[in-house]
Amino acid sequence: MIKGYAVLDFVGKSVMDSYQGVTQFIQLVVDSLAEGFRPPLRIRETVQQLYFIAVQSLPIILFCVCFAAMVTILESSFHMKLVIQNDSMVPGFAAMLILRELGAVVTALLVTSRVGAGIAAEVGTMKITEQIDALRMLGIRPIHYIVVPRLIASVIGLAILTIIANLVCLFVAFLVSEIYLGFTSGLFITGLVRFIHFQDLVFSIIKGACFGFVIPLVSCHFGFLCASGAEGVGLATTRSVVASSVIIIILDFVLSFVFSFFS
Amino acid sequence: MIQFEKVVKRFGPRTILKELTLHVPAGEILFILGTSGTGKSVLLKTLVGLLRPDEGEIWIDGQEVSKFSEIEYLGIRKKCGMVFQQPALFDSLTVFENVAFGLRRHYRLPEAEIVSRVHSSLAAVHLPDASEKMPGEISYGMQKRVSLARTLALRPQVLLFDEPTTGLDPITTASVNLLIEELSRQFSTTSIVVSHDMTCALSIADRIIMLDQGRIVEEGSPDHMKRSQVPLVKEFLAEVVT
Description:
The complex is a heterodimer of chains A (about 260) and B (about 240). Chain A has about 260 residues and is an all-alpha fold.
């Protein structure tokens, strides 16, 4: 009987904590949007964050998406040969997969692990060292000072990174298809033109921007809730990466579903 | 000047401040002593709206502020400067920029005036040559003094110190304590100091309050405290004797 109560107590507390967490996150989203339109524009901080989020993430993203593109085109070829004994549609199919999924999602997950973790740790450290309280004492709204520049930079940065990642992915896919799979450049481009459209790139950019919206908000949310000590910062960082990754995957499904009505 | 009326502050099931009533007249140096986790820092943060009371009223300069919005609190925070337990300096800014930060935000001063105030504040905390250094390049004690300079630069009417000497060596502790007294007397500010340091409290406080589990268990002048029969006060005094 006591065990039953303990389980009930645990479930009840978990539900209440989750509800409270979601409520606080929604409040942060609303406040951040409202603060985004309030002066002054923090251009210097936004540019600094853009450099951190986009420019400094570029090498690792390019490195990883190259391999992702190689795997995609090789696997596509292997499976098409296996199922329909013909891989002539591989360039177009792989390009579609890259534009619709790979470019945006792989980029966002990499940015989450690099930038999201960094933001959560930074904000968490600011919280436990009372820098956020100091900001408030000095008349600065923490959301305006901390969240808004990161949010703007992340939305712009992810949109740009997604475009670059897509282009690099396509280029690598082209190289693999020509060098390893024996497609000519003409065949590859014909495949691309037949399967993909400009709107696929637009949808990909929209996905990237939406993921860019989620990453700093989730990271700042966990940073603001950070408990004291190194353990608290570590926990906030871990939680922010896990939550951002899960939200990105769910959001990817939702956006893909919505975009399917426009394809 | 400052008045707490039956202030209650809870964190979940724990009640930190229990119907706390306190009056601090203008110009007084008040020390709040007590063991860790007894609500001293919460008291300071509640005063300036960094935490909100669950019940009770807080009056500053004849205004009831406990229901103020974040925007309304800006005016209160201009009057009250707070030195935190941690130095709370902004890592990406130099010492100069840290001290100038609040000045630029709170006041529309000419740059020459900002420079002058920053340098005079740094001189007041005996750090005239540290302005171009980054917080990471100076010691913890110096960081705490920069934090004090950042607060002083705003010339607040009320100075709030949250354990200003925690983590400092005895020599820096003595110099910070002296500084608190000098600055409070020099600028006629009302100072509230949260501390564990009974020695310092006895030497510079006008009044001392002993807080235990969210309630005031003893208050009075340093002489009164020396004669107090409250066990917790006697324990603190024993530390002074030893």
